[in-house]
Amino acid sequence: MNDVEGLCEPxxxxxxxxxxxxxGHDDVGAxxxxxxxxxxxxxxxxxxxxxxxxxxxxxxxxxxxxSTTKNMTALxxxxxxxxxxxxxxxxxxxxxxxxxAAGKEKVLVRHALSHTAGLPDLAAPTKVxxxxxxxxxxxxLAAQALEWEPGTAAGYHAxxxxxxxxxxxxxxxGRSVGEFFAEEVAKPLGxxxxxxxxxxxDHRVAPLIPPQSSTDEYASSAPPGPDGRRRAHTGAxxxxxxxxxxAWRRAQIPAVSGFGxxxxxxxxxxxxxxxxxxxxxxxxxxxxxxxxxxxxxxGDDRVLRTPMSWTVGFAKFGNTFGWGGWGGSLVxxxxxxxxxxxxxxxxxxxxxxxxxDRGMExxxxxxxxxx
Length: 371
Description:
alpha+beta, three-stranded antiparallel beta sheet, seven-stranded antiparallel beta sheet, Beta-lactamase
């Protein structure tokens, strides 16, 4: 079923054609969306929500977007900073006093948001089930020593990013990051994105499908370096079957456990591309958006083993910023053109075995519409 449904302004017909082509080859089910000036101009979906290809991917189908969730968690911190409730240049311990232990007094909020805090992994051996214990994980991070002097190096904080930023949000607001996001972002925008999914939404979830030739034991891992070796870490190895579990849906692991579709991802992130406003709803001021695209670190990332440019909460690629998730989801925002593009799918691709250009193909098709 390559039929693509939804909204697509004529100038963005290339996005529809690209999504249809992906559904005819690599994808089982997927959605793509484009926002310009905070308004949806593309909102498309198609394919199937299940690996047996028996249930169609509908307008309101949701799936776990893995690390694309980090974009949502970062936005929560920027909103608090814009409101004057959070100082990005203040020590984390200003808001979370216990965090000052083990020589972490100089870790700043912006370090936690830019993967430069020096805490890329949880120190203790961790099972996936341990990630559901918020107090346990954050207490462990508060007691943990740094791997490097904060701000001097970057290393992708795959899981710790969400607990660090989420606990800062909790200490400032008294609410979990999932609650804050739901009340201050998703509700006013009418965005169907969730950090902590309710049981009433389970019937809408498209489970992630492991890469071809893999099973649901397929696990996330840091990429190997130029020498072929992987960086040793003690963090949990998250498997596809973990992400597809009910426990994962209910949990708040705000680096990786968000559920949504391309429409919701693009709508929320378009606030930053459109100087803080979406469809007449203002989430933050124009100046409050600027940290999202202002570079904090540029150089080799110790975990990803590749040159990276990190801003306060996002990766920067030329004029765009954003980030993607394990398996293929992606969002990118361009503040110059006030455009945000998102792609969300259920069929994962193992990037160590083959390139995954699906999200980039959608982004490039969107840029062709601008021209």
